[in-house]
Write a structure and sequence with these properties.
Layout: H1 3-17, H2 23-39, E1 47-50, E2 60-63, E3 66-69
Antiparallel strand pairs: 1-2, 2-3
């Protein structure tokens, strides 16, 4: 897969989390990102935790320019 395909897969997986968040499903996205970034250090995918301004804890994540917020 190329980077665009991996990003699309990650985004599809993230969108499915909106119907029912689980740690296992979220970890699968992080793992896919980690594998890509390990194999392509010159062309990494940006992914990080996200915290809403009104939240006291991390309640989502970002992939490139998009973000997802979940109630856990």
């Amino acid at each position: 897969m190329d980077k665009e395909q991996v990003l699309n897969k990650m985004i599809n997986m993230a969108n499915k989390l909106l119907d029912g968040w689980t740690r296992k499903k979220e970890n699968a996205i992080w793992t896919l990102c980690l594998i890509w970034n390990t194999e392509h250090p010159e062309d990494e995918i940006f992914m990080c935790e996200y915290q809403s301004e009104d939240s006291e804890y991390v309640n989502g994540f970002m992939i490139e320019d998009d973000y997802w917020v979940f109630e856990k």
